[in-house]
Amino acid sequence: RTQDQEGSWSEWTSWTPCSRTCGGGVSAQMRHCSTLRASRATTGCVGLYKRYHMCNTQECPAGSPDFRQAQCESYNGKQFMGRYYLWEAYWDGENPCELNC
């Protein structure tokens, strides 16, 4: 620790359950920063408090429901701006991680 760094990290938690059973999911670990005293000069802890890794990256079996479409369909039957819609997933081509309905 430096003089200005008053914090120390806890141990990493266990990995969270994978967000998907197939097709590529994400799991995370967290840790907490403990500081000895509150001070404007204190920088706390250096480094990440959360880290991620990919999990269950194997392809889903043929005929499995499309994960993105299922997320969009969860809004079917819910009012949006005074109307009801049937939501469909689409790709915008710019950000493959973004969900668009």
TrEMBL record:
Q: Where in the cell is it found?
A: Secreted
> Which Gene3D superfamilies does the UniProt entry name for this protein?
Thrombospondin type-1 (TSP1) repeat
What keyword terms does UniProt attach to this protein?
Disulfide bond, Secreted
Q: Does the keyword Disulfide bond apply?
A: yes
Recorded GO CC terms: extracellular region
Q: Which SUPFAM superfamilies does the entry mention?
A: TSP-1 type 1 repeat
Reading the lineage from the top rank, the first entry is Eukaryota
Q: What is its main location?
A: secreted
Please name the PROSITE patterns in this protein's record: TSP1
Coiled coil spans? none
The protein's name is: ADAMTS cysteine-rich domain-containing protein
What does UniProt list as this organism's lineage? Eukaryota, Metazoa, Ecdysozoa, Arthropoda, Crustacea
